[in-house]
Amino acid sequence: MNKLITITGSSGFVGKNLKNKLSNKFEINELSIRYKKNQLFNFKSKVVIHLAGIAHDLSGKFKFEDYLNSNFELTKQVFDSFLESKAEVFIYFSSVKASSDEIKGILTEKNIPKPTSFYGKSKLAAEKYILSCSLPKKKRVYILRPCMIHGPLNKGNLSLLYNFVSCKIPWPLGAFKNLRSFCSIDNLLFIVEQLIENKMIISGVYNISDDKPISTNKIISLIAKSQNRNHIILNFPKILVRLLTKLGDKINISLNSKNLKKLTESYIVSNKKIVDAIGKKLPVESYDGMLNTFKSFEK
Fold it and tell me: What is the DSSP letter of 9?
């Protein structure tokens, strides 16, 4: 039995964790690739997991062409190579941003994709190409759309909140009530393992998230709990906060309209389709996974 798995982009946070998780059962082939014209790959593995590409560019240095080359054209090459190979399973890591950068209500796979960012548009273009191709028998293809992934030692965007709480400054945005979906790395690894091993899970697009969304206020409390203390959350009037953010827009401080939106907007993702397909409960509860992440920061 072929137990070889190819992982592109294995040097990133998800790739490293996948390698560590799957290496107990499979032989891992790490493939470091970038987009070049007219290239194909000779896959000898049973499974191809495609992670390589450009993620969110906070520096603003990448153009739309860069996103298309790394997230669309490279994915086409990898997927075409998979179709020509004897590999049986293809797992493509897309993003919920391929569906929408903003959500009203709950995001499901039935939502009509309307991404606005270069990142989301390039990911959606790759998805459309994969879905447009005829799939040979015995091959399975999964397009995963994870929301914000977190786990031990991966601070990411959560590091800003963690650093704020660590300074023991009262949280001033308690009046804003929101809910955001996150994805524990342990739940993500569990899902990927199930997709590889369970041939009954049908090919398709799947949103990936933990079971319950979490409010920013709850995240603040969990960070403080990971540090074995309580944290003060203040409920300043929203109108006062918004006036302060307009001032922040003019004098360029961290409390500005852009950051207020990030911290207080809702982004709820349904994981019902993937959970139903697997037929098993996700191993990590939403609050427990987030708390474990924050405890790792302290170490």
Answer: S
Return d(Cα 38, Cα 73) in angstroms, integer.
Answer: 10
Whether the per-residue pLDDT at 138 is higher than 70: the answer is yes
Q: Give the chain's length.
A: 299
The Cα–Cα gap between 295 and 116 comes to: 35
pLDDT of residue 56: 67
Q: How many CB atoms lie within 10 A of CB 242?
A: 11
Interatomic CA distance for residues 77 and 255, integer angstroms: 43
Q: What is the pTM of this model?
A: 0.95
Number of other residues whose CB lies within 10 A of the CB of residue 176: 18
Contact (Cβ atoms closer than 8 angstroms) between residue 141 and residue 157: no
Bridge partners of 89, per DSSP, are 47, 140
Task: Give 1's pLDDT tier (boundaries 50, 70, 90).
Answer: low
d(CA 47, CA 265): 37
Residues in contact with 160: Cβ distance below 8 Å, sequence separation at least 6, in sequence order = none
Long-range contacts of 14-19 (CB under 8 A, 24+ apart): 14/51, 14/93, 14/149, 14/185, 14/188, 15/51, 17/151, 17/185, 17/188, 17/189, 18/49, 18/51, 18/189, 18/192
Residue 208: which residues within 8 A CB-CB, separation 6 or more?
A: 144, 145, 146, 147, 183, 187, 188, 191, 269, 271, 274
